[in-house]
Design goal:
This protein is mainly alpha-helical. The protein has helices spanning 32-38, 41-50, 62-68, 74-82, 89-97, 101-104, 111-133, 146-155, 161-174, 181-191, 196-207, 215-226, 232-241, 259-269, 274-294, 304-314, 322-343, and strands at 5-6, 16-19, 24-27, 30-31, 347-348.
Length: 366
C-alpha cells in the first residue's frame, strides 16, 4: 500500500464529533453527557477504539488487558532512572515514551500496542513523580481500576472514592477531542509510516504548550493571584485593561460553552475545597460578564481547563502533574486516532502559499 500526498478530506474522523455552534460533543455518536454518566475510563477506551459499548456485539473488555500491561519493562525503568530527577514531569514523560522499544519498532500500530501505551503511561508518570519527590517506587495494584491505580501510585495511599470518581470523570471527558493540535501532530507523524511511540512523543510536545494541555496550572496561578472573592472584580478589570489573558476562557472550536466545562463545574464541586470553589465560581461569573461587555463580537465562554484545574487540585494532584494527567486521559483518543490514521493512510502535507519575493536575477556584481 503506497502512501500518497493528500490534503483534501484530511480531518475526516468517525471517532469524535464536535458541533461548536451548539456545544455538542460525541464519542462514536454518543453524547458526552451520556458517556460520562454511564461509562468509566476503561469502557470509554474500548468505545473510542472500536465504537462499541459493554454488552454490545464485538465489545472488548479492556480492563483486564490494561491491568496486565501496567508494569514497566526493565529497560524502560532504566531510562527513567537515567533522566535528571529535576526534569519537568511532562518532559520526562515525552522522553520515556520515545524509548518504548516494543511500541517504537512496529508499523502499523495495532490495538495491542495501543493498549500497552494506555496501560503503561500512568505507571510511567507516577514513577517519574516518585523519583522527583524521593518516594520509593510503588508497583501497580492489579486490584484497582485504571484511574484509582494512578492515584495510588502517585499518592501512596488509597484515594477516597469521591476523588477516584471525580478523576475518572475527568479522564472520560478528556479522552478525546477530535483532531486537536496534539492529535494532529500524532497523525502527521504516523502518516509518514513512523511508529506509535514517535507519534505520541510528538503529541506530548504539542500538548505541553499553555495554549493546549499546559493551561490548567495557569488557571490555579491566576486564582492564587486573585487571592479572595472580594478582589475578583478589580483583578479581572486590571488584567483586561492590560490586555492580559484569562486562562480557562475561550476555545477555538466552541462558540458557546464547552460542554465538558458544564459537566466539570459540578464534578469539581464534589472534591474542591469550598473556599477555592467559591472563588472559582465568582471569578467565572465576573469574567463572563466582563468578556461579554468588552468583546461583544468575540464570544468567549468557560472551557474545559477552568474547572478541570479546580478538580485536579481537589483530588490532590500536584500542579506539575496536571499536564501529564491531561495526556494520560488523552492516550485513549490518541490510540483510536492512530488506528484510524493507519487504516487508510495518506501522508499529511498541508498546502503552502509562498509569500516571499518574486524570482530575482542573481547579479554577480552586487
Amino acid at each position: 500500500m503506497s502512501a500518497t500526498l493528500e490534503v483534501a478530506g484530511f480531518g475526516d474522523t468517525s471517532i469524535t464529533g464536535i458541533d461548536g455552534t451548539r456545544g455538542v460533543l460525541t464519542y462514536r455518536g454518543f453524547r458526552i453527557e451520556d458517556v460520562v454518566q454511564h461509562l468509566g475510563y476503561e469502557a470509554t477506551t474500548g468505545l473510542l477504539l472500536w465504537g462499541t459499548r459493554p454488552g454490545e456485539p464485538g465489545a472488548r473488555d479492556v480492563g483486564p488487558e490494561l491491568r496486565a500491561r501496567r508494569a514497566l519493562p526493565v529497560a524502560l525503568d532504566r531510562v527513567v532512572e537515567a533522566l535528571p530527577s529535576n526534569a519537568a514531569p511532562i518532559d520526562g514523560f515525552r522522553t520515556a515514551v520515545s524509548a518504548m522499544e516494543d511500541v517504537a519498532r512496529i508499523y502499523p500500530p495495532t490495538a495491542t500496542e495501543s493498549l500497552k501505551l494506555v496501560a503503561r503511561c500512568p505507571t510511567l508518570v507516577a514513577r517519574l513523580h516518585q523519583r522527583a519527590t524521593g518516594s520509593p517506587p510503588r508497583a501497580p495494584d492489579p486490584r484497582l481500576g485504571h484511574v484509582a491505580n494512578y492515584l495510588w501510585m502517585v499518592k501512596g495511599t488509597a484515594a477516597a472514592p469521591e476523588r477516584v470518581r471525580a478523576l475518572e470523570r475527568y479522564f472520560v471527558l478528556l479522552a478525546d477531542h477530535g483532531i486537536s493540535a496534539s492529535t494532529l501532530a500524532l497523525r502527521v507523524v504516523l502518516s509518514t509510516r513512523s511508529d506509535l511511540a514517535s507519534a505520541v512523543s510528538a503529541a506530548l510536545g504539542a500538548l505541553k504548550g499553555p495554549l493546549h494541555g499546559g493551561a490548567p496550572a495557569e488557571v490555579l496561578e491566576m486564582l492564587d493571584a486573585v487571592g479572595s472573592i472580594d478582589q475578583v472584580e478589580a483583578w479581572i478589570d486590571r488584567a483586561l485593561d492590560q490586555r492580559g489573558r484569562l486562562f480557562g476562557f475561550g476555545h477555538p472550536t466552541y462558540r458557546v460553552e464547552d460542554p465538558r466545562a458544564t459537566l466539570l463545574r459540578d464534578f469539581a464541586k464534589e472534591v474542591a475545597a469550598p473556599a477555592r470553589y467559591a472563588l472559582a465560581r465568582r471569578f467565572e461569573e465576573v469574567a463572563l460578564e466582563r468578556l461579554a461587555r468588552r468583546r461583544p463580537d468575540q464570544p468567549l465562554f468557560t472551557n474545559v481547563d477552568f474547572y478541570g484545574a479546580v478538580l485536579l487540585e481537589g483530588v490532590g494532584l500536584p500542579r506539575g502533574l496536571f499536564t501529564p494527567t491531561f495526556a494520560l486521559a488523552r492516550t485513549a483518543g490518541w490510540s483510536a486516532h492512530a488506528l484510524e490514521q493507519v487504516a487508510q493512510n495518506r501522508m499529511v502535507r498541508p498546502p503552502e502559499r509562498y509569500i516571499g519575493p518574486a524570482p530575482r536575477v542573481w547579479d554577480e556584481e552586487t
